[in-house]
Specification:
Blueprint lengths: L3 E11 L2 E8 L9 H11 L1 H8 L9 E8 L2 E7 L9 H14 L6 E6 L2 E7 L5 E4 L4 E11 L3 E9 L3 E7 L11 H17 L12 E6 L8 E6 L11 H13 L9 E4 L5 E9 L2 E8 L1 E12 L10
Parallel strand pairs: 2-3, 4-5, 10-11, 12-13
Antiparallel strand pairs: 1-2, 1-16, 3-4, 5-6, 6-7, 7-15, 8-9, 9-10, 11-12, 13-14, 14-15
């Protein structure tokens, strides 16, 4: 087929949340660091991001990971339906499982360069992956905001590779169940918009683009259950790696989690991530353990005659 672009991908899901790893066919990116490559991706190839993630080839819940090689191993740039991401925990677990599937995981441990720092990931014999994330931090505890139509909501601003607002009070009557996902999506979207409108941001002016709500767990081994609003209008089907990392940072700040102690975080779909942390040079380094499963390996074709080849926006 002349005049078409072909990109090879491997799809997986981690706790129900899909990852599409681009393994071949993507143009070379300029830049020495993953942050510079992410900027070049956004500037020159945003149409490919849309085509890879959006309908008709994907949907707004997909997260993409462009697999790159570096002098020391592997690197990646994460992206979703609305733009580029800093870090992605479930996506990292999916990427490690993809490397294993392709026979490219020569050692069980890799160091993966991301736009926000290098993370360590280990695939265990049982198929689980433990990710040691970038440093997490609780920036503001018990921030009270007024949300139109809801009222006073109190939560924590924390960073775990992306910025989160973790709700602590004000939504006690909101049931955290998959059946209630439409209401959860609307409420968390309203909270994020209130944060933006009222000028609340993370360090260096970064937008707080994730909102996390908690409820009572239902699965053995879980101590909490969450609903996570992602950038855009999608919610995380997994417990969210960067969101769980942010939760760990707030628990440490409150003395609720000791070093080496494990914390089970259940998702809206019932999947679980197990989290712990290490202290190093005054920083909190969260570890997230979960599992991904390969769902497809394919070549995506972008026909130049297809008016929707770059996605439905």
């Amino acid at each position: 087929m002349s005049g078409s672009t072909r990109i090879q991908v491997v799809d997986s899901h981690t706790g129900g949340e899909p990852t599409r790893v681009v393994v071949a066919g993507f143009p070379d990116l300029e830049g020495d660091t993953m942050a510079e490559k992410r900027a070049d991706f956004s500037a020159r190839y945003d149409h490919l991001r849309r085509g890879l993630i959006l309908e008709p080839r994907g949907s707004d819940i997909w997260v993409g990971a462009l697999l790159l090689t570096t002098e020391t191993g592997f690197g990646t740039v994460f992206f979703n339906d609305v733009g580029m991401l800093g870090m992605c925990g479930h996506g990292t677990i999916g990427l490690v499982e993809t490397l294993h599937h392709l026979g490219r995981l020569s050692e069980p441990v890799i160091h993966l360069e991301t736009p926000v720092g290098t993370v360590r990931a280990e695939r265990h014999e049982n198929g689980e992956v433990t990710l040691q994330n970038v440093a997490a931090k609780a920036e503001v505890l018990d921030l009270a905001i007024e949300v139109p139509g809801i009222g006073r909501v109190v939560g924590d601003v924390a960073y775990g590779g992306n910025y989160f607002f973790l709700v602590r009070s004000g939504l006690e009557d909101l049931e955290v169940t998959f059946a209630n996902r439409a209401k959860l999506l609307q409420v968390t979207t309203d909270i994020r918009q209130a944060l933006i409108d009222q000028g609340y941001r993370g360090e260096n002016g970064q937008i707080i683009d994730h909102v996390e709500v908690f409820g009572a767990p239902t699965q053995p081994g879980a101590k909490s259950k969450n609903f996570v609003l992602c950038p855009g209008t999608a919610f995380d089907r997994s417990p969210c790696g960067t969101g769980t990392s942010s939760k760990v940072a707030t628990m440490v700040a409150r003395g609720e989690l000791k070093e080496g102690e494990e914390f089970g975080q259940e998702s809206i779909t019932g999947s679980i991530f197990y989290a712990s942390f290490q202290s190093k040079d005054g920083q909190i380094l969260p570890s997230i353990r979960g599992r991904a499963y390969i769902t497809a390996q394919s070549t995506l074709i972008f026909d130049e005659n297809d008016p929707l080849r770059w996605g439905i926006v």
